[in-house]
Amino acid sequence: TLDRFPRDAATLERVEPVWEEFEGWSEEITEMRDWDDLPENARIYLAFISNELDLPIEWVGVGPERKQILMAPLD
Q1: Cα–Cα distance between 36 and 51 in angstroms, integer?
Q2: 14 to each of 9, 10, 17, 40, 73, how far by Cα in Å?
Q3: pLDDT tens digits, 20-75
Q4: CA nearest 48: which of 20, 16, 75?
Q5: Were both Cys, which of 1, 29, 39, 48 would link to 25 (CB 3.0–4.6 Å)?
Q6: 5-30: string of b/e by CB count within 10 Å (b at 16+)?
Q7: What is the pLDDT of residue 73?
Q8: pTM of the model
Q9: Residues 56-62: contacts with CB under 8 Å, at least 24 apart
Q10: What is the dihedral of CA 4, 7, 8, 14, to 10 degrees?
């Protein structure tokens, strides 16, 4: 497992991706205005990304408008 992108083509040719699969969600999220309103599977997915990157997720957009930006709860 690599922790960064390979520097040379020879190494890159030998790598294989590691796939993680998640349950999706069918709920419409564009009208949601609170983090806790997001479907549970969406919150699980976002938590995974945050954990893998070792970075907090502070904002999530659920559409193109400014009012469609959700602020993550503070831990």
Answers
A1: 19
A2: 9, 7, 10, 36, 40
A3: 999 999 999 999 999 999 999 999 999 999 999 999 999 999 999 999 999 998 76
A4: 20
A5: 39
A6: eeeeeeeeeeeeeeeeeeeeeeeeee
A7: 87
A8: 0.80
A9: 60/35, 62/29, 62/30, 62/32, 62/38
A10: -10
Q: Which two tokens stand for residue 48?
A: 């995974």
Nearest CA to 28 out of 13, 20, 44, 39 is that of 39
Angle at 47 between CA 65 and CA 42, to 5 degrees: 55
Cα distances (angstroms) measured from residue 48 to each of 42, 58, 74: 10, 14, 16
- If one counts every other C-beta atom within 10 angstroms of the C-beta of residue 33, the result is 11
H helices of 1-75, in order, are 9-14, 40-53
Return the structure tokens found at 17.
Answer: 């991706």
Other C-beta atoms lying within 10 Å of the C-beta of residue 38:
20
